[in-house]
Amino acid sequence: MQIQVKIIIGTIAFMLTMILMGFVALREPARLEATTNAALGRSIENGAATFEANCATCHAADGLGREGGTCFDAAGEEIACIGANLQSPELVCGSVPLRLEVQSWTGTKYAYINSTIHSGRPWAG
């Protein structure tokens, strides 16, 4: 085979490879967004399942934890809600809530909530 034919074949192969790579690169942002959205959806579903299993018995399914509201234990029996309102302005805004002062918590409210989510309540044993 002559050298010129090899050069032409190599050039055509290189150009086809570059066209293919360009097509893949153009589609990558859409693929990445779809993958990210799917992972976020799974994360939200896992969080909801964790809340339902570990938190809803005291804070109610909506997180409002109304005193005297309706909550359900692990067996599905109706019980009175005893947990605090997870959406209260005292917890999410402003100064340190009394609960954190009583427990001598020195971190931020965000760290307290994160710690409770990951490790459970400190008094739960």
Q: Can you walk through the features of this model?
A:
By secondary structure, this protein is mainly alpha-helical. The chain has a domain at about 1-55. It is built from 5 helices and 2 strands; from the N terminus they run H-H-E-E-H-H-H. The chain has a two-stranded antiparallel ribbon. The longest helix has about 50 residues, at about 5-55. The model has no long low-confidence stretch (mean pLDDT about 80).
Task: Summarize this entry quickly.
This protein has 125 residues and is mostly helical.
Q: Which tags fit this structure?
A:
125 residues; mainly alpha; two-stranded antiparallel ribbon; 61% helix; 5% strand; elongated
Mean pLDDT: 81
The Rg value, from CA coordinates, equals 28 Å
Strand content: under 5%
What is the number of strand segments?
Answer: 2
Distance between the termini: 80 Å
Helical content stands at 55-70%
N-to-C SSE series? Answer: HHEEHHH
Strand order of the largest sheet: 1-2
Instruction: Note poorly predicted spans.
Output: none
Q: What general outline do the C-alpha atoms trace?
A: elongated
Structural class: mainly alpha
